Amino acid sequence: MSGKYRVLIFDNNLSCYDRLRKMSVWHEKGFEIVGKTSNITDALNICKNSQAELVICFNRSSLPSTEAVISAVSEVSPSTVCIAAGNAGDSETMRRCFIIGAIDYVSEPVSELRLCEALDIAEVRLTQSLSGSDYSQTVEEFISELDISDKRFLERLTAFLNESKDVIATTESAADWFGFNKDYFGRLFKSKVGMTFGIFYKSFRIRYASRLLSSGRYRVYEVSEMLGFSSVDYFSNVFKKLTGKTPSQVKSL
What letter would DSSP give residue 64? Predict the structure, then answer.
């Protein structure tokens, strides 16, 4: 099974690369090495085109500085995370790498145990970063499909959804956010959108779930948990009712 996160190795040491590729921790943690480069322009193009979610940058005198690579990657692809690798005694380089955004620093020779720890950190950061991007895109897409002439209402609804990423919104919480009582908000929302807030929000969450599943990065139970459904079975039933497909069918497309 291919990894849900793709890894680019920035290095010019072939023996080190071959050693890394043979480590089983990549597969176990859901990562997949997709290539190696020592050219910073190539690395930036790969990241900019969303072909790698993680870059491991080795610190060698024959390469561009690790700090320069990490800084450039962060600028062209903010969702990509970077791990620095180098001499254990080079505390100054380690400090500078952390300052500019490296999520970890692993010492050479890289052990499988230490790499496992670094990948755990990367997975947490990537889940937060990529799911956040997926969420924002879903909000933008979903709102754009509404046939509503009241731009102010759309702006406020967009803001509400964006601020509700990590919670399960209800008619009550939406009414409070808009500054209305529940009954008035319910009538207002239906008159503006053509459906109740409950139906609207359920449809939005399933659209977000579809995006997460189709990315191939998440299992069905992970998406169910991320969206706060009480069980995978309930999530699957709601998903199929609204889309006509099971979550597994969407994930395999």
Answer: S
